[in-house]
Amino acid sequence: MPRVNPKPQERVLPPETYAELDAFIAALHLDREDERRKESLIQVLHKAQHLFGFLPEEVQLHIADAFAINHAEVSGVISFYNYFTTTPKGKYQINVCLGTACYVNGAEKVLQEFEHILGIRSGQVTEDGKFSIESLRCVGACGLAPVVTINDRVYGKVQPGKVQEILEHYLVEASGEEAPVHA
Amino acid sequence: MVNLTIDNRPVTVEDGATILDAARQLNIRIPTLCYLDLHELKMVNKVASCRICSVEVAGRHNLAPACATPVAEGMEVTTNSRRVLFTRRRLLELILSNHPFNCLICAKSTDCELQALAWEFGINTKRYHGEETSFPIDKTSGALKRDPDKCIMCRRCETMCNEVQTVGALTAYGRGFNVIVGPAEMKPFVDSNCTYCGQCVSVCPTAALTGHGYIQETWNAIFDPTKTVVVQVAPAIRATIGEEFGIAPGTPVTGKLVAGLRRLGFDAVFDTTFGADLTIVEEANEIIQRLTTGERLPILTSCCPSWINFIEYQFPNLKYMPSTCKSPQQMTGTIAKTYYAQKIGVKPEDIVVVAVMPCIAKKYEARRPEHETNGVRDVDYSITTRELAKMLKEGGIDLRFMDEEEFDNPLGESTGAGVIFGATGGVLEAALRTVYEKVTGKELTNVDFTAVRGLTDVREAVIDLGGRQLRVAAGSGLGNARKILENVEKGTSQYDVIEIMACPGGCINGGGQPYTRDRLDMIQLRTQALYSIDARSAIRKSHENPSVIKLYEEFLGEPGGHKAHELLHTEY
Ligand code: SF4
Ligand code: SF4
Ligand code: SF4
Ligand code: FES
User: Fold this and answer.
1) What is the pLDDT of residue A1?
2) pLDDT for position A179
């Protein structure tokens, strides 16, 4: 059996979730000698992201071992798809575009304002798990620069002064959801 | 066979050949950049990512990459039409648009394949000014240096690391404009499973991957009047450094090299080959012990630090197998700072040991925490053949015009057995010469164990030790090492002693050697140079090295004895 990634990695994610992932992988009947097993890699990564919410290194190593491939290979695949994330994401994912057009229109100030108000840095999640901030390169909406997306919603021509208002909208929405469904 | 024409000249090549192969047969030069053919090492990098080799094929709309396009019957290829030359130039200019223009201060200057192309193409301006990537430089390992801004995404390093060495430390990371090659999660090398074999450095066309340099530290030591600075040179250096001075490959330059080092200002010029002989005496003793008890077999050689890293990361359950002997670099350093220090009456902390090595991993080895004696590093700086060549040039020393001089004693005397450490199979052969005599008590008349020499994947032999059949094997390249270890693990291997060198061909092809690009014939010439030194040596068995014998008498006691163990052995 080819030995890969033997370096021990401390695990903090729940064993039950790993068990669920393992059951999914077991059902695929991967043949560790067969090159074609790698075709299932993306499928397993999808499942893992669905289960854990993100794909940190401990999960990557676990999957690499299941496929008997190197960690580097798994890492490379994850990095190729925007869909996959290696950092935990909040319920509301804030993306600030730092492409050239947005940048020259002050996107960095907007990003700083989000960071300031939420008290986290880009790439982090708020403690309550509600918000996460990421910056991206051009999203292709340069006419609206600077552009911010929150989940599927696009905000154009965002100025630092508007940030508070945008966030408040989501805070209200969030607290609304936590309230009992029917009074 | 396939018939085609290139630039109107007919040529016949084998099925499956590429346009590039066919052109080479006609001595038509098509420039290449990403392509690298090292098929003797089972590596051909054919990702066709750069398109610098573009040619025109009659009847095809698009230009074809010659390196990856198979020939076809009746094909008509044009390699130097206006369209071809114009396209190649534009492609090169696009690559250059996202490449730093700091050649003047680049470690790879004059050895860079991108720079060479720019020169050939007569590039005289930066035509396109696009966005440029900017990634941090990784110097965390103190052995490898990675500068992603200089990466042209040829993927040679990945092919080498993953397919030849089977280490799998590298991957393309990200996509589009921001894609770069590096360890998993773009972590620094220290946090990866890289073994520092440096083979990726050997194939990288630019300075995206280089060795971590210690030239300045070495100069500072030389010019520090309070320090006694000794230098040791590995066996493989004498067979390669001449190349950097235009001396024909395969010419041994031992005496000239010694003279050059002395002129540089080192206080003593020692030979790591002495340490190699010492290693053999200790290791032979260990081999015999393990054979007698039958425990911890097979014994694996431990002179190659990259190989040791490979076992540590990939086969941690076999960590008890390698010989506990330190490598020749570390033994020579230790003896210089103990025995020699005592002899000249200088405190160990006032001695600086500089090691000239063919190797990137030796830089890492010198820094391993366990390699110090009473708080003093055994080896202070490990520099490569390439770095030493630069220092000699800076110091105004041209090896071609040096008279031959002798190493200093007591760490300068060596045998032919120590010299062949630099080629794959050499450590094993040297050990056999000593083990045979120690076990049988008879004199070995023919010391040449040619069966373990050569570039083939794994060489094996059975040696009759007067009744006991000793089964040995030697292999180079970590891919071959993996195969051997897997068999050891499965219990299907029958060997008693195994030598592994991480670099294909051994240290003569180390990651710190003068760049050979695709010229594997140079590796053969270098190998022959070492064996010719051995053949001409008066003493060809390590245990007959008079200085080593004296070292045991005056200082160490018995091989494998208490003091020898304390100073010359380590654990993993
Ligand atoms: S030094 Fe060797 S192991 Fe490390 S990345 Fe390069 S080729 Fe791979
Ligand atoms: S690091 Fe060097 S060898 Fe690797 S892809 Fe980049 S340019 Fe090519
Ligand atoms: S084979 Fe030699 S040059 Fe290569 S890593 Fe090992 S010791 Fe260094
Ligand atoms: S050399 Fe042929 S595509 Fe790069």
Assistant:
1) 39
2) 41
Nearest residue on chain A to B317, alpha-carbon basis: A6
Q: Do A76 and A97 fall into the same domain?
A: no
Assess whether A97 and A163 both reside in one domain.
Answer: yes
Q: How many domains does chain B have?
A: 3
Task: Residue A71: list chain B partners with CB under 8 A.
Answer: 168, 184-185, 193
Query: Are B415 and B459 within one domain?
Result: yes
d(CA B43, CA B106): 27
Residues of chain B contacting residue A54, judged by C-beta atoms under 8 Å apart: none
Q: Which of B56, B113, B244, B365 is catalytic?
A: B365
Residues 58-87 of A with CB under 8 A from B: 60, 69-76, 79-80, 86
Boundaries of domain holding B79 = 2-95
- Least confident residue range of A98-112, B50-64, B416-430: A98-112
B93 as an active site residue: the answer is no
State the CATH number of the domain containing residue A140.
3.40.30.10
Q: Which long-range contacts (CB under 8 A, 24 or more apart) does B291-298 make?
A: B291/B439, B291/B468, B291/B470, B291/B496, B296/B320, B296/B321, B297/B496, B298/B488, B298/B493, B298/B495, B298/B496, B298/B497, B298/B498
Boundary residue ending a domain (B164, B186, B211): B211
- Which residue from B171, B174, B175 is facing A72, i.e. has the nearest CB? B171
Assess whether A126 and A167 both reside in one domain: yes
Say what the pLDDT of residue A181 is: 40
pLDDT given for residue A3 in this prediction: 52
Nearest ligand (C-alpha, residue B160): 1
- A2 has a pLDDT exceeding 80: no
Q: Catalytic residue at B460?
A: no
Q: Residue B439 to residues B204, B296, B435, B442: CA-CA distances in angstroms?
A: 46, 19, 6, 8
- Do the interacting molecules here have an ipTM over 0.90? no
Rounded to a whole number of angstroms, the CA Rg of chain A reads 20
Cβ of A79 within 8 Å of Cβ of B175? The answer is yes
**A119 and A63 part of one domain:** no
